[in-house]
Design goal:
By secondary structure, the chain is an alpha+beta fold. It has 8 helices and 5 strands. The strands form 2 sheets. It has a 3-stranded mixed beta sheet, with helices on one face. The protein has a two-stranded antiparallel ribbon with strand order 2-3. Helix 2 crosses helix 3. It is elongated, with a radius of gyration of 29 Å. The chain starts with a helix and ends with a helix. About 3% of the residues have low confidence.
Length: 260
């Protein structure tokens, strides 16, 4: 491809008209037309501005290349990606932000981009009240790595968290760590799971805590029980919980009693 071919291709991929591009670069529409027809060539400062605008290297622009099938496929993928995140935003403002903003670095009430910040944020990295992304941070957060008051993700960290690996005040997951923890492997002050390890209370197939209730194995320093609890056992466990759990964890103790 010649320089003109690339300039034409990149302009169309990014949904610019020749007039719009001319305004951005501070040249005439005729100049854009000549560049794309290889009749004339942009000055160095214009080439630099074009490379920044289209997020491509000068090396790519200036070297003539033959397109292979793989290269065409990669270019098509990049083209779709650029179209999705082409800079555009609402003209209406609220609290000093556009109602919506789509772009690589999006900021708005609703923000969509590689790096998105807003009330609702969706992106590779998202930060907002409600955030969705590979890395998401928010009050309500969902993603591969999620951080928030309420977090859902492969790795979730929050007040309420759920995921393959979760950590929080209330945590649920394949592997969970929390004050109250539930999962295949649960570790916390109060734990319920296949393998439950707790400080004060643990219930599961294998349980280890001050009070341990297990189906197969139970190791408890204060109380341990294998198999189903009788009504009398439940009363005794609740009494012991009242004795050994400090006052500041009374809320968690009361939740743990719901399992009895």
């Amino acid at each position: 491809m010649t320089l003109g071919d690339k300039l034409s291709k990149l302009r169309k991929e990014n949904n610019y008209t020749q007039e719009q591009l001319a305004d951005i670069l501070g040249v005439s529409r005729q100049a854009i037309s000549k560049w794309e027809s290889d009749i004339a060539y942009p000055e160095t400062d214009k080439l630099i501005r074009i490379s920044e605008l289209y997020d491509c290297s000068l090396d790519y622009l200036l070297k003539e290349t033959m397109e292979t099938d793989d290269k065409v496929q990669n270019d098509n993928t990049i083209s779709v990606f650029r179209k999705v995140f082409r800079e555009r935003k609402s003209k209406k403002m609220l609290w000093g932000m556009p109602l919506w903003h789509v772009g690589r670095n999006a900021r708005g009430i609703v923000a969509v981009g590689l790096n998105a910040r807003g009330i609702i944020a969706i992106g590779i990295k998202a930060m907002g009240v409600l955030s969705v992304g590979i890395l998401s941070i928010g009050i309500l957060s969902y993603g591969l790595l999620a951080l928030g008051l309420v977090s859902l993700g492969m790795l979730a960290i929050g007040i309420l968290s759920a995921g393959c690996f979760s950590a929080g005040v209330l945590a649920a997951g394949a592997i969970s760590l929390g004050i109250i923890s539930s999962g295949a492997i649960a570790v916390g002050n109060f734990s319920v799971g296949a393998m439950a390890i707790g400080k004060y209370f643990a219930m599961g197939d294998h349980a280890r805590a001050m009070i341990a209730l297990g189906d197969t194995k139970a190791i408890g320093s204060v109380y341990e029980k294998l198999g189903e609890l009788t009504a009398q056992d439940s009363v005794e466990v609740k009494r012991l919980l009242d004795e050994i759990v400090p006052t500041y964890l009374a809320w968690a103790r009361d939740l743990a009693k719901l399992f009895l």
